[in-house]
Design brief:
heterodimer, A: mainly alpha, two-stranded antiparallel sheet, globular, B: mainly alpha, 3-stranded antiparallel beta sheet
């Protein structure tokens, strides 16, 4: 129990730290939303001044932070100047779409990485391993942006995937099953981009972790007892190699979130990425802070999930006895 | 021996790639800003050796392109005209490496402009723009990595060498920075800095932003090395002889971190070039008319460009060989330092 408590404390520390950090960054800003507004001749100076007073943008930083925290506790997370509404509902819709994309991609990436990594580890140094290694090295050298744009061009030129957005025109009139199909079709392209960007790293780590375990005496003993290869690999080796991989799982959530930001913008998937970009360009302060914080929450959740899994998988953590 | 050779090979490849970009003026046939409004979105020209009569020529040539009848962006080859490709021709004036005035270009043509990789909306030569754009993007990556490593060594060195509350406080902040997805961090920092600024200001601004975002991981690695180095016998002995902290750091402790720093540099530089590309692509980095690998791709955000003019994507591929070589260099450096296994399992890559 103390283990979980400590992990939760860490997550809380992370969130507080990030929110303070983003607020601190925001004081670096030489301009804000209302400065842009003042340039608009249709809005009078009095209106701008009134709005400034209403949103208290001129108050000192700690006051603004305190007000923001209280609005967070009321479930609003500050106010979006551009959308003229509280930030939380705006974020919620977008965050749902981002989650849908990243979770699907994480699952697919891991489902592919485990068998591929195992394959590489069992054929270490031989042809399949070498092919796999050069393939992952090549993929590693292709940045997310290049990959996403390339896939988009491929999709546009071949027409294999629908591009842009999350749903087709006339989505409202479809039956629930057709709606699901439509979303899945639109999900394919961004998901492929994310999976391809995460896959090489995952495969490499799985391969390294399993290759290390395969050398262990207990596995040689098990093999000489005639335990089938498949059982040996998936039940014994993978389990023993699970520890670093579970931590990596937590990390991969964060990495995919980072990647999805860009993929979403490139493929116009209506997630947090495009919202954040628009907010930056419009100087919509609280939306930016909210978006960054939202991603941190996902990240902390991913790490916490990894910790829970570790607790379940590693008796050393459960019993509080650490190795060495 | 083979490892040494590997490291040398990667360094050579790196020098060649950087050399090409550094001497962009020589390899590029035109000035990156030179416009040819009559030929927007010209597709890449084909360099030929065999002409329409089936005769083989020794000197490569190309057919000029002309707008097809009744179209504003479809080009056809004028097969009746064959323009020979000339090498080492005198052309637009430029400064080699930014210093030496020069006007010889590797190749060029006289009767018509040559577009190896097509042209953009203003008829500017994509090939020249990619080469010149590389100068900005690579410089951003190198300077950004320099700032990050400086911060990393400074912070990691202080934390590791002095320990105590300084170590505690600095490492808590580092944990924050490591935990955040770096693209979000980059965005958050960029979000609060001015948007409408000149290309030069933007360039230095994003170098600072990129450099400030990534310091945490090198700082933690440097701290680890410093922690173990300061307890080594020769360091204790030097301290016993009355060496000052500054002397110890400069002479004994920091040199120990050099292999970590080199490896980190090889990992960070391509990552930061990509960061510049990403920011400029999204319109948050260096703006037009200065070409960078990022803003050369910005036109792809328009659907019509994406559908019709595939060669606008080519600048994206320029980063790939650089990335490959830097990754190869990083793993060669790790092998050299004997830390390959540790790096591999702790994820010394782009996460």
């Amino acid at each position: 129990m103390r283990y979980f408590l400590r992990r939760l404390m860490q997550a809380a520390f992370l969130l507080t730290g990030v929110s303070m950090l983003t607020f601190l960054f925001s004081t670096l800003a030489p301009g804000n939303y209302f400065d842009e507004m003042r340039l608009n001749p249709q809005i009078s100076a009095e209106t701008v001044a009134a709005l400034r007073a209403q949103y208290q943008v001129d108050r000192p930083l700690p006051v603004r932070y305190a007000r923001w925290v209280s609005s967070l506790l009321h479930g609003e997370m500050g106010f979006s100047f551009a959308y003229n509404s509280p930030v939380a509902p705006l974020l919620w819709v977008r965050a749902r779409n981002t989650l849908l994309l990243t979770l699907t991609s994480t699952l697919i990436a891991w489902a592919l990485a485990l068998p591929l990594g195992l394959w590489g580890a069992t054929t270490l140094g031989r042809l399949p391993d070498r092919v796999l290694s050069s393939a992952t090295a090549t993929l590693l050298a292709i940045p997310d942006l290049v990959l996403a744009l390339g896939l988009l061009i491929l999709a546009v030129r071949t027409g294999w995937f629908p591009t842009g957005g999350m749903v087709s025109v006339g989505f409202e009139n479809l039956s629930p099953l057709q709606k699901l199909r439509d979303i899945v079709l639109h999900l394919e392209l961004p998901a492929i981009a994310l999976v391809l960007s995460a896959l090489p790293i995952l495969v490499r780590h799985v391969r390294a972790a399993v290759a290390e375990v395969l050398e262990a005496p207990f596995l040689r003993a098990a093999a000489s007892h005639g335990i089938p290869r498949r059982t040996l690999l998936y039940r014994y080796a993978l389990r023993a190699a699970a520890n670093p991989l579970i931590s990596l799982f937590g990390l991969s959530v964060g990495a995919l979130l980072s990647g999805s930001l860009l993929v979403e913008v490139v493929m116009s998937w209506p997630g947090l990425g495009p919202l954040l970009l628009e907010a930056i360009l419009a100087r919509d302060l609280y939306v930016v802070i909210g978006g960054v914080l939202c991603s941190t929450v996902f990240l902390a959740a991913g790490n916490f999930l990894a910790d829970v899994l570790l607790y379940w998988a590693d008796p050393r953590i459960r019993t509080g006895v650490t190795a060495k | 021996m083979t490892q040494r050779y590997g490291l040398k090979g990667w360094l050579l490849a790196l020098a060649v790639l950087h050399g090409i970009v550094a001497c962009a003026g020589f390899f590029a046939p035109y000035d990156p800003a030179e416009q040819d409004r009559a030929h927007p979105y010209l597709p890449p020209m084909r360099i030929r050796l065999v002409d329409s009569q089936g005769l083989t020529h020794l000197r490569p040539f190309f057919h000029p392109l002309h707008l097809s009848d009744g179209s504003f962006d479809q080009y056809g080859e004028s097969t009746d005209q064959a323009i020979p490709l000339r090498f080492f021709v005198a052309g637009t004036r430029y400064r080699l490496l930014g210093l030496v005035p020069f006007r010889i270009h590797l190749f060029g043509a006289q009767a018509s402009r040559i577009y190896l990789l097509g042209s953009d909306a203003y008829g500017r030569d994509q090939f020249s723009r990619i080469l010149y754009g590389g100068q900005i993007s690579l410089l951003a990556g190198l300077l950004g990595a320099g700032i990050t490593l400086f911060l990393g060594v400074l912070i990691g060195g202080i934390a590791g060498f002095y320990g105590g509350w300084r170590d505690g406080a600095l490492m808590r902040v580092a944990e924050l920075f490591v935990a955040l997805p770096w693209l979000y961090l980059l965005f958050a920092l960029r979000a609060f800095l001015p948007l409408a600024i000149s290309p030069v200001q933007a360039f230095f601004l994003i170098i600072l932003v990129i450099g400030a975002v990534g310091w945490a991981r090198p700082a933690r690695l440097v701290r680890g090395v410093v922690l173990s180095a300061k307890e080594r016998d020769f360091v204790r002995a030097a301290r016993g002889f009355g060496a000052t902290d500054a002397y110890l750091l400069r002479r004994h402790v920091l040199p120990e971190t050099s292999s970590v720093i080199l490896t980190q540099a090889a990992i960070l530089v391509p990552q930061f070039v990509v960061a510049e590309m990403t920011l400029s692509f999204l319109g948050l980095g260096v703006p037009e008319p200065v070409p960078t690998w990022g803003n050369l791709l910005a036109s792809l955000q328009q659907y019509s460009v994406l559908v019709s003019y595939w060669w606008m994507y080519v600048p994206a591929l320029a980063i790939v060989p650089f990335f490959l070589v830097y990754l190869g260099l990083a793993s060669a450096l790790q092998q050299e330092a004997g830390t390959e296994k540790i790096e591999r399992t702790t994820g010394g890559d782009r996460w």
